[in-house]
Amino acid sequence: MGSPISFLRTFPPAQQKELAAALRLCRRRVDQSLSDVTITTNATSTVATLKCPANELGADSVIHCRVAGSLAANASALGLTPLIAINGTTFYTDQLTVPDAGTDTIKSFLLDFRIYWKTPTTARLEGQFQLSTDNVAAADTGAGALGGTDTIGAAFNHELTSLQQAMDHIITVTMAAANGLSGTSKVAALWVE
Fold it and tell me: What's the whole-model pTM score?
């Protein structure tokens, strides 16, 4: 998969700069993964690795990432620690408690975050982690539900000042699952706007 900016070399050199500037004003998906990735119990699992090429970023650029999947808990109050890293540097991590839903333990999760470039070396992160149990009868076509009683919606933000905007960026998302908690990451995608 590639961004439209990567295809500029097919245009005459005089037009490439103007087209690149115009494309940077548009939201564009630059990487994605639809591979199932196992979240292993009592271990740290890399659930997404997405790349944002340096030529995609400019002044005031925003990187938008989403990772979604399902979790299963076989006990109550299990810890899950998502971690977001950029080029190997931890941008944000925190632990949350995954509640047990009784007999139906499948939960759907969504980690949605944006990285805003304030300066060429400073970026700000904002996002949310959502979790929904699948314990509503109408939700029989997949994991998660619009009315689960154990729904979690946690917002977060952070600033990192040791980055270099003018380089390729590898966004890595890992999840450390407590003993008794497992799952699968199903979708990971990265956009630039």
Answer: 0.82
